[in-house]
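Holo prediction — zinc ion.
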Amino acid sequence: MRSENMSARGLTRLTPRAKLTKGQTRSNNLRLALQIIFDKAPTSRAEVARESNLTPATASGLVDQLIELDLVESIGTGPSAGGKPPMLIAPNPEGRQIIALDLSSSTFRGSLLGLTGETELTVERVGATHGEAVAVALEIVRELAGKASAPILGVGIGAPGVVDNQGGTITSANLHWDDETVAEAFASVIDAPIHLINDAHGAALAEYARADIDASNMVLVRVGFGVGAGYVLDGYLYRGEHAAAGEIGHVRTDADEGALCSCGSRGCLETKASMSALIADVGGDRPLTRAYIEDLAADPSAQDAIARAAIELGRVFSTVVAAFAVNELTIWGEATSLGENYRLAVQDEIRKRVLAKAADRIEVRYATTGEDAVLLGAAALVLSAELGVVW
Ligand SMILES: [Zn+2]
């Protein structure tokens, strides 16, 4: 397994969708060829040469290397264009596997994914707070690693809070972790690179990699227990100082009043726009679930409270959308169960508050990656960090 990891590291690390520049170093070319094969599969050596502007001999040599590394496979022959029929190539889904973890809700989930991003197996464990959370997460990784049928490219972990991928630590109020040295703990159970990502950042990466978005910029806002955001800017996942970009839920929207927030402050955005705030606003007494939010969406007496929550979210995110010149705001989390009225109310509020010329271009939409967004984002991070490509 060690040699597999060394081979993978031979490829250039890259942030997703960074501009691929042509004809530079050998490993850049290898990465470029691999990305073309991911994008165009099934494809051929001739197409890789055309798309990369490399000579047919060079492109063919790169494809041979990728086949040698088990990252690409031959899948038969295509129609002849007059001469010898071309050999078709595609990413090898069985060449590597990725372990992804989502520690962002009360049930921890872990998946084993193939190289092309399809989920092969998902396991769940009731999550734990305090000291046991790490042990539960390690148990999931051990189980998935035991069932792997290919070398593990890496382990991607999505967690709430401030996630420091460089230092390998997570600080999370929900998990009761304070600078928990997560990467070190995982390295003790599996011989593969460990990558950490904030849950909203992971969801943003998954949406960006998977959704049919014709833009290089995207803001994703998670609206559930709290409010958090993830940004893809000019094709890069933006993490910010201490990887805390998007911790916008604790910005106070009132100067010195408002409801008490879990952070100890008053009048934070979370106390007005989160789904827990919505439940408090309607005087609800059930725990936050999608089913409960769907019930509220259908309840006439809850409509004013839903509109208030939408306006509060739109108010703050109009600034974010304008600051980054983003045309698309993607909502993810339990709030997506509120349906069209809520989505349009957020959109209207943002459009009302930005420059009139830009207003019509701004769309608010719901995420398409659903419950698996954090898992897919954590896996996409592993793929981009280890092989320099995106799905
Ligand atoms: Zn707060």
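READOUT: The first helix runs from residue 2 to 9.
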